[in-house]
Model the fold of this input.
Amino acid sequence: MTLDTTFDALRTHALSLPEAWEDHPWGETVVKVRKKIFVFLSFQKDGALAISVKLPQSAEFALLHDFAAPTGYGLGKSGWVSCRFAEGDDIPTDMLVEWISQSYRAVAPKKLAALVATDA
Done:
C-alpha cells in the first residue's frame, strides 16, 4: 500500500465508527466522536504519514515499535502514541485499524464505545 492508500484506509475506518466525523483543526485531519478527537492523521512536511491515537491498553506495546513514540504536547502521559511512516515502509495497517478502534473506545461515550467490538 502507498501512504495515500493507507491514509484513505485508516480515515475510512475511523469514519465508519458510530457518530464519527472529520474535522481539520491546525491544518491536519482529525476524526472525532461527538466533540472529542480519537485519531490524528496527517502528512508531514517530509511526506511521511503520521497517525496519533489514544491507547490506554496497549501504549506500552505500541512504544516497542521503532515507528512509534509518545505523542507530544503532554498527550503521551495520557496514553497517546504517535506513529510515523515513510513511503516504502512496511505499514501494519491491520494493527493501526485496531488501534483506531481502541482509541475510539477510550474517548467515546460508554454507550457508543460498547458498539465497537474489541479484538480480545
Observations:
- The two ends are 27 Å apart (CA to CA).
- The CA atoms of residues 12 and 82 lie 19 Å apart.
